[in-house]
Amino acid sequence: MNKHISPRMNRRAFVVGTAAVGAGLAIGLDLPFGGPAVVRAADGSPEVNAWVVVRPDDTVVIRIARSEMGQGSLTGLAQLVAEELECDWSKVTTEYPTPGQSVARKRVWGDFSTGGSRGIRSSQDYVRKGGATARVMLIEAAANEWKVPASECTVARGVITHKASGKTTTYGKVAEAAAKMTPPAEVKLKDPKDWTIIGKGLLRLDTADKTTGTMVYGIDVKLPGMLNAAIKDCPVFGGKLKSYDEAKIAGMKGVKKVVKVGDTAVAVVADTWWHAKTALDALPIVWDEGDNAKVSSESIAKWLAEGLDNDQPAYVGNKNGDAKAAIAGAAKKIEAVYSYPYQNHATMEPMNATAIYTADKCEVWCGTQNGEAAFAATLEASGLPAEKCDVHKVMPGGGFGRRGQTDYVRQAVMIAKQMPGTPIKLVWSREEDMAHGRYHPITQCKMTGAFDANNNLVALHYRLSGQSILFSLRPEALQNGMDPAAFQGVAQSGEAAFGYSVPNLLVEHAMRNPHVPPGFWRGVNVNHNAIYTECFMDELAQAAGQDPLEFRRKLMGNHPKHLAVLNAVAEKIGWTTPAPKGVYRGIAQVMGYGSYVAGAAEISVTDGNKIKVHRIVASTDPGYVVNPAQVERQIAGSFVYGLSALFYGGCTVKDGKIEQTNFDTYNSMRINEMPKVESVMVPSGGFWGGVGEPTIGVAAPAVLNAYFAATGKRIRSVPLRDQNITFA
């Protein structure tokens, strides 16, 4: 009966009872877990606490605040709660609370944001405590009924037993009494050695509905009396809507209304989406594109190249010794310039949201990576207070960071506000989705390494020039103007630290922000920083006349976790044994999102430009592995994303506009191009890292390094399509 319950489309997901809540957990948020009065789910079942509802038939409903978008967080988070709850996993189901309900209850479910591979690692502590708290309360309720000490009772698979008397009961029978209890102030979590659910490759809870087609995605939402909207925004970022001639489409089939959306967009509302889009395409529109219409990929590249000049200002993100002086006095110097393009998220389901607005209420149904951000956008666009708004999360057809933004939610509400009482489903066309993304930041990097007379690396200067995501999306997170996220993978410390010790090191960022908006694209800055660092490490190894693996190992003595994953992947790929004839290997490592990862690839090359990736291997240390089967799938999915970006990705700019408008010009790798994927997990414990994004970063440098081994040619810019290099 394992499954995820999608929210119904015509009501709130829960009916919240009268009394609010009792004691919270001291984790920086007010997270009450219930109280003396019973809070009930919509079907009347008692809520033991905010995370756990138990039905009379012993079904356990686990609330999941984070978003599921294919990465497996829904199942992993349920495993964390169920582990501490000691329930019967076969009777577990899940459902989403809404951000409006959470805000009304003092943010009882905490952070709704799902990005940066943080879904599990940043909430694992308090969701496990939610499960443990509910277990204690359910046992206590049974003990009270039997008039025995709770310490004499045990529980397994949702069955509570008092061994001395032989009495047993189930969670479903005592849930009502437990729901009336005051939660304990403190609960003890299990030792990892005692886990029975965490660490198991359990089947995903959302697979059945996705396989049978019963899963409801945002684009599937239907409400009584609903109309459909198509939209066009100014194709040049920063431009505005000047005018449109509504009369030209007034008689077209199905058209109900033409509405202006903010200062930059126009939408057509019709009985069907196709009628809306057809009319929109026929609508004469005049844009004020502004000065950004003069911008091109060439002008952006020139501007970024100027930032590589050492005389230009830059933020220092990692430094020891005096790299510039050491380079100036070195016996040998190696220099290379790399570049990385814009990348589009290109989710299979384009942006969409359904909204209904009245003077007394505004509700939205959408796939989102951040329910609270979508809720805030709804408040802003509707002008209504929080108690009159809500957002119902439905399954998104891909996210990859794009659905952390809320532009499409705001647009849907702005359209619905102009047609009060009528549900409006806004769906972006594929072309609109491609032209108005939030793209992987464009960057260039100048790498300089220096050796002494004995071929020891004595200095490394890493100068990055390019966009800052935080400057665009979260300027309040800048540190004295510097974007710390720009240094992911090359930072001095933290969750994305540099994995090498060099006597003289300088890592700096010349921030240059073109008009095309950057966004959190799966893997984010780790992607290009890993290419720059790991491909240049191979260049340095070649210059020193050393094996790429051994060269790295000599620099990693003070980085044992980095070294452990590198060694694991080298062993798995068989680095020290000869590769099959005509097959060549490449290797790379990086730290990202709190996890240590390494990758190795085996490729062959035909005619100098046709690459067959035979095999790609990853090793990862995320601290703890909640669901190893899902981690393996995430690694494979990461390689699909990373290799697609390497071979086919990359967005270009002409006349201020993104040129790639559909999958004919922004391709993705096909099944027949996918290599065999192998994974090695080496969890060392003691910390919680991410798994959805880190391994993307090692895919491209592993293949690029293998390409050099095969051909003797260095590729320092992607995508490979621009180098006339394709899959074989």
How would you describe this structure to a colleague?
The chain is α+β, with helices and mostly antiparallel strands. The protein contains 17 helices and 31 strands. The strands form seven sheets. The protein has a seven-stranded mixed β-sheet. A seven-stranded mixed β-sheet has the order 13-14-11-21-18-19-20. Helix 3 crosses helix 4 and helix 16 (628-647) packs across helix 17 (696-711). The protein is globular, with a radius of gyration of 27 Å.
What labels describe this entry?
17 helices, 7-stranded mixed beta sheet, about 725 residues
Shape: globular
Largest sheet: 7 strands, mixed
Spatial extent as radius of gyration: 27 Å
Number-wise, the strands total: 31
| Main sheet: strand order | 1-7-6-5-4-3-2
Q: List low-confidence stretches.
A: 8-35
| Mean pLDDT rating | 95
Calculate the terminal CA-CA distance, rounded to whole Å: 44 Å
Helix count, DSSP H or I runs of 4 or more residues: 17
Percent range for β-strand residues? 15-25%
Q: How much helicity do the residues have?
A: 25-40%
**Assembly annotation:** single chain
Structural class: alpha+beta
